Amino acid sequence: MNLDLAFIAEALLKLLPAVPTTLLLTAVSAFCGLAAGSVLALLRFFSVPVLGRLAAGWVTVIRGTPMLTHLLLLYVGLPLLIDSVAGQLGSSWTSARIPMIAFAMLSFSITASAYGSEVIRSGLLAVSRGQMEAALSVGMTVPQALRRIVFPQALAASVPNLTNFVIGMLHASTLAFVVSVVDINAQAEIVASTNWKYFEAFLAAAVLFWAMTLVLERIGAVLEKRVSRYHRGGVA
């Protein structure tokens, strides 16, 4: 097999327009997943009656089922639900107006909420409960103690896992092509379809993902250095 280096370079340039879509999918799903995951983690951390068990059940179910399954269930089921509700309300609005990327974002965010919850929860468990008790003893409210004492230290302890979490969501974003979202991998297939050079096209896609992963790893390393003081018990 002769490797066409010139086509790899050409494919790299043609894949660049799809990078923003991949980054948008990653950013939205990671942010929403961590936001929802933080709530789930707190419910479990404080053993909130009923809600804590529901949160644990949610995490177990989502982590126990494939990400692709979540995407397909939403892609097939949600439009049916939306169209049914719209029909009962007498609305002419249909699910066809919803862009495919919205289904991918919602599905990825749901998956990310479970994995993000475990990342945040592990960080919370790394903080001594005495920290919370000490904060409450000096007159802080629970929200104040969480915001100023517990969460900064929990996030500091979670930086390596958070970095891996975001990288994982970046790589998982390639599943979006299943619902016709043109991300980097889908664009690679389009580029290769003109001359059947799929190996070179997907190799170019791999190079792009590798480069983005290196950037995320570097950002994670910088953040880890900046927040390492929390591991020594210091609080800003």
From TrEMBL:
CDD domains: TM_PBP2. The chain crosses the membrane at residues 23-43, 55-78, 98-116, 162-182, 202-223. It is a multi-pass membrane protein. Keywords: Cell membrane, Membrane, Transmembrane, Transmembrane helix, Transport. It is found in: Cell membrane. One of its GO terms (biological process) is amino acid transport. Signal peptide: none annotated. InterPro entries: AA_ABC_transptr_permease_3TM (IPR010065), ArtM/GltK/GlnP/TcyL/YhdX-like (IPR043429), MetI-like (IPR000515), MetI-like_sf (IPR035906). One of its GO terms (cellular component) is ATP-binding cassette (ABC) transporter complex. Residues 19-220 form the ABC transmembrane type-1 domain. One of its GO terms (molecular function) is transmembrane transporter activity. Its main location: membrane. Belongs to the binding-protein-dependent transport system permease family. This is Amino acid ABC transporter, permease protein.
